[in-house]
């Protein structure tokens, strides 16, 4: 594999990692607020907090990682995306900032502040929507070079079926992934009441997720036929993805093997996400930036990949330690430990 | 003011960094202080130090949260506000930026573990061990991010071919001439400032009439650390002066209003310049600048007149330099004074450390933070007009997008809200739950001081 293919693969893995952990996090925030206003807070609140507390910081890092890696490997993306995304990017930053800090404020500072919870839960839904704009733009047709300037065509963006279908997919899949994970987590904690509530959410959001996925398929066919053709070449990935979805739903419906069910959900998104990404190649931003013209210095490319591997050698054991201590430690999950 | 994306981009970047630096400094220094307190607690079997570590850690989480989100802001803003700069320099700084994120990742994981495992193991040393990766992670992330900044000051290890940067040698770019002094100064001053921030808290508690021995232990510990770190910061600061003289003479000359290249150059303290560059009310210390620059009173120091007019940094950086140095030196004096009085107090019973000393200490944290901000403004404004010294001017790196002014407004509001939120939450957190109550609850009441 060439350096740029390795580079984009690694970056895509990180983006996928962000997609999963951030979805759990964003969805949990929303459910937590939703439960508060519908008076079911005490049923699922502890489960959500017990999971989120030790991991909330880690989520942001995935995103920053992806961003920096992107610029490192493909600096032209910084120019095109940086210039055009000033407004949506800044809004996303503000939302992320509010969400992160108010999570900490409400969890470690003052207990049960409804307003903090609203900020936290609400921003969690807006962030995926604003971030998904990047994926939309990368399909091409929304940015234009005018002399020395690059501009985002807002009018076109807001009236595009494709853009809206991506936003919808981002929203519903966040809720679906999160609910599937929390169902499993509640089951592990032997908190059956919470499990039932969350299972309801998971089932409820499974339908919209699959409908939204289909919507994106149709929209992409109209918006970027070439990309759609490429996706058809990789049809097996999308079919497998659908199979994983069906298995996951079956398991959650029957309250069986919820851990496996969540793995299926992860696979479902992995297959669809990597299929989408692979079909997008060689373009990063269609048709302006492809992966081939970007890396200008092989020494740096190799150093970056080296740093990646070294970093992963450090991170993976630490992440396993984190999970063993908090996710897979029966005593902690069930709240038997002193805080 | 007419809309100029460069000006607004500079203000916005400055604002974000200026806000982030407060939390980043605490984020680098406080973990070390927490670990020292926990270590003393276990080693001396003294529950006061352990409680100190716990309470600091609890407050620390809140500041970390803001540090994380503002750090994410600046990470993304670099691309949004300086796309042309990132397109060119992005690859060269990618490696240290990457490693910074790794270090931060590492820290984030272990911080999560640390905070939730206080009573998990019978052997307290296991929990203490977890603080070590946090310190390593936070210090390394300061190290790597400062390398990025060092690279912008003394770029090397690449060739510029039109708008593309080629033939990058990652290690030569990372270990550029500015790297050693910059990283050491940033890390040391972060430790120093954190020690003083915590000293401020202890001093305020004692001033408010709390006389539990807990506060006195806290004050003494933080002041001892403060002395060590401020001495090392001053020492590294001197090395930084020598670095500037060699690699960025224009920054040093602008800071000292040194126009003519001369030997036996004098250092200017305070004062102001009129239009014709005549110094008023300033104090000139003969030979001092030559000593600062080259360690030799007779050494020649390059003056601003030898620098092309369009490459001279603004002259106002002199004030920032002076404030930084003045605060740094008075901190050392304050620490020595306090420790001397504290010793005298211990030798003769009944004598307390005078209240005015405590009052001075209560200003040390904010002042040290001010010194950090001033030092940083001095370093950054001092390399104007360059964004990549010698390669790219700031005006060519900025975004061309419209609406940067609105973004500036939005972020200003955000920082006001966050700043207010932190202040509010921290205050409430510590008011509601005093150390005395906590000690009583843990069944470890070390007794009143009197």
TrEMBL record, chain A:
Keywords: Cell membrane, Membrane, Transmembrane, Transmembrane helix. Its main location: membrane. It is found in: Cell membrane. Coiled coil: none annotated. The keyword Membrane applies. It holds the Pfam family Cyt_bd_oxida_II. It is a multi-pass membrane protein. The chain crosses the membrane at residues 6-34, 55-73, 79-98, 118-142, 162-185, 197-220, 232-253, 260-279, 299-322. Belongs to the cytochrome ubiquinol oxidase subunit 2 family. This is Cytochrome d ubiquinol oxidase subunit II.
From TrEMBL, chain B:
PANTHER family: CYTOCHROME BD MENAQUINOL OXIDASE SUBUNIT I-RELATED (PTHR30365:SF14), CYTOCHROME D UBIQUINOL OXIDASE (PTHR30365). Belongs to the cytochrome ubiquinol oxidase subunit 1 family. It is found in: Cell membrane. It is a multi-pass membrane protein. InterPro entries: Cyt-d_ubiquinol_oxidase_su_1 (IPR002585). Keywords: Cell membrane, Electron transport, Heme, Iron, Membrane, Metal-binding, Transmembrane, Transmembrane helix, Transport. This is Cytochrome ubiquinol oxidase subunit I. Coiled coil: none annotated. The chain crosses the membrane at residues 20-40, 60-82, 88-116, 128-152, 184-207, 219-237, 316-341, 356-379, 406-426. It comes from Paenibacillus agricola. Its main location: membrane.
């Amino acid at each position: 594999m060439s350096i740029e293919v390795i580079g984009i693969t690694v970056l895509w893995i990180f983006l996928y990692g962000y997609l999963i952990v951030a979805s759990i996090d964003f969805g949990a925030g929303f459910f937590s607020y939703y439960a508060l206003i519908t008076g079911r807070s005490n049923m699922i609140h502890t489960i959500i907090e017990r999971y989120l507390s030790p991991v909330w910081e880690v989520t942001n890092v995935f995103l920053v990682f992806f961003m920096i890696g992107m610029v490192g490997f493909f600096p032209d993306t910084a120019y095109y995306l940086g210039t055009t995304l000033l407004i949506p990017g800044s809004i996303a930053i503000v939302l992320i900032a509010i969400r992160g800090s108010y999570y900490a404020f409400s969890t470690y500072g003052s207990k049960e502040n409804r307003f903090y919870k609203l900020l936290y839960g609400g921003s969690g839904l807006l962030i995926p929507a604003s971030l998904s704009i990047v994926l939309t733009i990368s399909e091409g047709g929304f940015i234009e070079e005018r002399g020395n300037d690059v501009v985002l065509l807002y009018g076109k963006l807001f009236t595009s079926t494709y853009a809206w279908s991506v936003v919808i997919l981002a929203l519903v899949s966040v809720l679906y992934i999160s609910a599937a994970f929390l169902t499993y987590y509640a089951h592990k904690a032997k908190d059956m009441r919470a499990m039932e509530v969350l299972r309801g959410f998971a089932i409820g959001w499974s339908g919209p997720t699959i409908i939204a996925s289909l919507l994106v398929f149709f929209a992409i066919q109209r918006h970027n036929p070439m990309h759609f053709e490429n996706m058809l070449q990789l049809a097996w990935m999308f079919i497998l993805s659908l199979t994983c979805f069906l298995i996951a739903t079956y398991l959650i419906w029957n309250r069986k093997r919820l851990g496996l069910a969540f793995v299926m959900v992860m696979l479902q998104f992995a297959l669809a996400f990597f299929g989408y990404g692979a079909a997008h190649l060689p373009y990063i931003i269609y048709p302006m930036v492809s992966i081939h013209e970007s890396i200008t210095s092989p020494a740096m490319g190799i150093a970056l990949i080296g740093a990646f591997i070294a970093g992963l050698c450090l991170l993976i054991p630490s992440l396993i330690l984190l999970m063993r201590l908090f996710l897979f430690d029966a005593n902690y999950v069930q709240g038997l430990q002193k805080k | 003011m007419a809309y100029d994306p460069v000006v607004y981009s500079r203000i916005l970047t400055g604002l974000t960094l200026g806000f982030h630096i407060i939390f980043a400094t605490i984020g680098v220094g406080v973990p070390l202080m927490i670990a020292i307190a926990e270590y003393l607690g276990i080693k001396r079997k003294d529950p006061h130090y352990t409680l100190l570590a716990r309470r600091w850690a609890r407050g620390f989480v809140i500041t970390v949260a803001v540090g994380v989100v503002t750090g994410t802001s600046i990470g993304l803003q670099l691309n949004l506000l300086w796309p042309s700069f990132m397109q060119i320099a992005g690859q060269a700084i990618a490696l240290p930026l990457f490693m910074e994120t790794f270090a931060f990742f590492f820290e984030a994981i272990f911080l999560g573990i640390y905070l939730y495992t206080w009573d998990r193991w019978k052997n307290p040393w296991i929990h203490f061990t977890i603080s070590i990766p946090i310190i390593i992670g936070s210090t390394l992330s300061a190290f790597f991010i400062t390398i990025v900044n060092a690279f912008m000051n003394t770029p090397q290890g690449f060739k510029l071919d039109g708008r593309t940067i080629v033939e990058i040698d990652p290690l030569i770019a990372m270990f550029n001439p500015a790297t050693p002094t910059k990283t050491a100064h940033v890390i040391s001053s972060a430790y120093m400032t954190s020690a003083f921030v915590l000293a401020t808290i202890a001093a305020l508690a004692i001033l408010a009439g709390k006389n539990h021995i807990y506060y006195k232990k806290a004050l003494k510990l933080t002041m001892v650390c403060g002395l060590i770190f401020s001495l090392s910061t001053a020492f590294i600061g001197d090395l930084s002066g020598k670095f500037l003289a060699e690699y960025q003479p224009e920054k040093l000359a602008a800071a000292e209003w040194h126009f003519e290249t001369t030997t036996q150059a004098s250092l200017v303290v305070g004062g102001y310049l009129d239009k014709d560059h005549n110094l008023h009310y300033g104090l000139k210390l003969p030979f001092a600048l030559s000593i600062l620059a080259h360690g030799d009173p007779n050494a020649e120091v390059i003056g601003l007149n030898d620098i092309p007019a369009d490459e001279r940094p603004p002259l106002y950086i002199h004030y920032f330099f002076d404030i930084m140095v003045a605060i740094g030196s008075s901190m050392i004096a304050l620490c020595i004074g306090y420790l001397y009085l504290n010793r005298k107090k211990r030798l003769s019973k009944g004598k307390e450390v005078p209240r005015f000393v405590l009052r001075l200490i209560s200003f040390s944290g904010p002042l040290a933070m001010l010194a950090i901000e001033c030092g940083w403004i001095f370093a950054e404004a001092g390399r104007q007009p360059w964004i990549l010294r010698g390669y790219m001017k700031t005006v060519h790196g900025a975004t061309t997008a419209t609406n940067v002014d609105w973004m500036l407004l939005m972020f200003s509001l955000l920082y006001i809200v966050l700043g207010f939120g932190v202040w509010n939450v921290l205050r409430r957190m510590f008011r509601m739950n005093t150390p005395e109550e906590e000690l009583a609850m843990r069944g470890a009441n070390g007794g009143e001081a009197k």
